[in-house]
C-alpha cells in the first residue's frame, strides 16, 4: 500500500540556518509528489510539486527514486517559514495521501 | 467568491446522532476528497471521488459515508458507528492534472 512517512514531528532551527524536512514514500508505481504548507489560521495550500521542479519561497525538493525520498530544503530559514508542512503523494487512481506532518519552528 | 466551501465551521453533535458535513466547490474539479486531521496524525483519507456517482474508501472509512450526486458537492456523513468522531475535517478538490485545493475545515465536537 502507498505510504508517506515524515519522521520528524517538530523541527526547530534558528533564523538563517538551513532547513531539511524529510519525506519518504512507498509506492510501486511512479508517484506524483507534493509539499503542502499550513500557516497559522490559514488553509492548507500547495508549496511545490516535484513535476514543476520550481523553487517556491526559497524551498526546493528533489525526488530521489532510489531512496524513495522527497525531502524539502531551504538554505536560510526565515521566521515566516514557521508552519506545518505535509508531504503528499497521489497515485494512478487519484488517491491523494499525506504524511503525518512536520512542524517547523524558526526561532529569531 | 470562487473556491471550495465547507460548512458549518463548527458543529456539535450528541452521541448516537448522525451528522452531515457539507463540501461544495465551484471550480469544476473532477476529484474530491475528505480527510480527518488529528494532532500528530496528519491528514488521514476518509473517502475520495474521481467522478460523479463514484467514490472509493480511503484509509479510515469505517463509520463514515459519502455521496457524489453532483460534481460540485461531496457531503460527508459521520454516523453513530464512528467511535471517535471529534476531529477537524477537511475537504479538498482537484482537477486531473494539478494540485488539490482545500476548504477551511469543519470542527466537529461530540458532546
Note down, in words, how this protein is organized.
The complex is a heterodimer of chains A (108) and B (111). Chain A has 108 residues and is an all-beta fold. Chain A has strands at residues 3-5, 10-14, 19-21, 24-26, 32-38, 45-49, 60-61, 72-74, 83-90, 96-98, 102-107. In chain A, a hairpin with a 5-residue loop joins strand 9 and strand 10. In chain B, 0% of the residues lie in helices and 49% in strands. Chain B has no helices and eleven strands. Chain B has strands spanning 4-7, 10-13, 19-25, 31-38, 42-49, 56-57, 64-66, 76-78, 87-94, 101-102, 106-110. In chain B, the strands form two sheets. In chain B, strands 2, 4, 5, 6, 9, 10 and 11 form a seven-stranded mixed β-sheet that branches. In chain B, strand 4 (31-38) and strand 5 (42-49) form a beta hairpin. In chain B, 36% of the residues are buried.
Helix proportion range of chain B: under 10%
Order of helices and strands of chain B: EEEEEEEEEEE
Rounded Rg of chain A: 13 Å
Rg value of chain B:
13 Å
Count of runs of 4 or more consecutive helical residues of chain A:
0
Strand content of chain B: over 45%
The residue ranges of chain B in which pLDDT falls below 50 over 5 or more consecutive positions are none
**Which oligomeric form is depicted?**
heterodimer
| Biggest sheet record of chain A | 6 strands, mixed
Coarse structural class of chain B:
mainly beta
Which key phrases capture this entry?
heterodimer, A: 108 residues, six-stranded mixed sheet, three-stranded antiparallel sheet, B: 111 residues, mainly beta, four-stranded antiparallel sheet, 0% helix
Amino acid at each position: 500500500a502507498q505510504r508517506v512517512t515524515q519522521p520528524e514531528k517538530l523541527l526547530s532551527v534558528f533564523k538563517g540556518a538551513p532547513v531539511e524536512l524529510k519525506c519518504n514514500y512507498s509506492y510501486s508505481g511512479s508517484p506524483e509528489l507534493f509539499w503542502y504548507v499550513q500557516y497559522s489560521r490559514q488553509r492548507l495550500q500547495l508549496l511545490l510539486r516535484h513535476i514543476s521542479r520550481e523553487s517556491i519561497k526559497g524551498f526546493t525538493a528533489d525526488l530521489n527514486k532510489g531512496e524513495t525520498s522527497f525531502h524539502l530544503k531551504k538554505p536560510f530559514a526565515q521566521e515566516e517559514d514557521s508552519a506545518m508542512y505535509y508531504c503528499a503523494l497521489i497515485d494512478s487512481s487519484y488517491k491523494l495521501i499525506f504524511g503525518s506532518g512536520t512542524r517547523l519552528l524558526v526561532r529569531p | 467568491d470562487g473556491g471550495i466551501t465547507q460548512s458549518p465551521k463548527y458543529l456539535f453533535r450528541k452521541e448516537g446522532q448522525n451528522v452531515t458535513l457539507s463540501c461544495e466547490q465551484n471550480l469544476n474539479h473532477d476529484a474530491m476528497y475528505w480527510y480527518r486531521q488529528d494532532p500528530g496524525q496528519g491528514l488521514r483519507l476518509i473517502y475520495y471521488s474521481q467522478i460523479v456517482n463514484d467514490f472509493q474508501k480511503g484509509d479510515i472509512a469505517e463509520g463514515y459515508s459519502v455521496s457524489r450526486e453532483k460534481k460540485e458537492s461531496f457531503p460527508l456523513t459521520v454516523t453513530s458507528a464512528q467511535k471517535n468522531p471529534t476531529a477537524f475535517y477537511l475537504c479538498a478538490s482537484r482537477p486531473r492534472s494539478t494540485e488539490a485545493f482545500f476548504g477551511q475545515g469543519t470542527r466537529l465536537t461530540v458532546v
